[in-house]
Amino acid sequence: MGKIKLEVESTKSKTGLHAMRRMVVIIRKDKEEIIKDPIEEGKGTYKEGKSGYVNLNLNPNEYAVHVILVRNPKNKVKGRFIVYDHEGKALLEVKYEKLKIRRSWGDKNLSWIIDRVIELIGLSNYVRHKNYATGQSGKSS
Predict the structure, then answer these.
(1) Which residue of 45, 78, 113, 134 sits 20 to 30 Å from the alpha carbon of 104, by its own alpha carbon?
(2) Range(s) of the domain holding residue 74
(3) Is the dihedral of CA 98, 99, 101, 102 positive or negative?
(4) Residues near 132 by Cβ (< 8 Å), separated by ≥ 6?
(5) pLDDT at 138
(6) In angstroms, rounded to a whole number, what is the distance separating the alpha carbons of residues 47 and 31?
């Protein structure tokens, strides 16, 4: 069992025009869990809000998905979803931009995890197209 330390934050700029959300979604056979609150304090991207870290101990057949979303002044949201296994190894990374999901690198057979996370965090209505065939099959260096 590997230990994984991931950033969790919900911050926005002083003007409120920029916002950053980082959360962790744990996918298990029987249930899912969304972690939005940090356990360990840390410095955030923007001034207002809370940020920090969570330490995870996953069992085999459990996945952690690190969701990173940024909103700009034009209310456009873009971000990344990174899937980790129980050993802390990154298996898949996809990019979210212009209402599209596109694989950057990793195992496209794990795309069902990304689909489930999008549904759990309420982003389903904001994704119009998914393309898991692009990108590289291994992690890019």
Answers:
(1) 45
(2) 3-131
(3) negative
(4) 94, 101, 103, 108, 111, 114
(5) 66
(6) 34
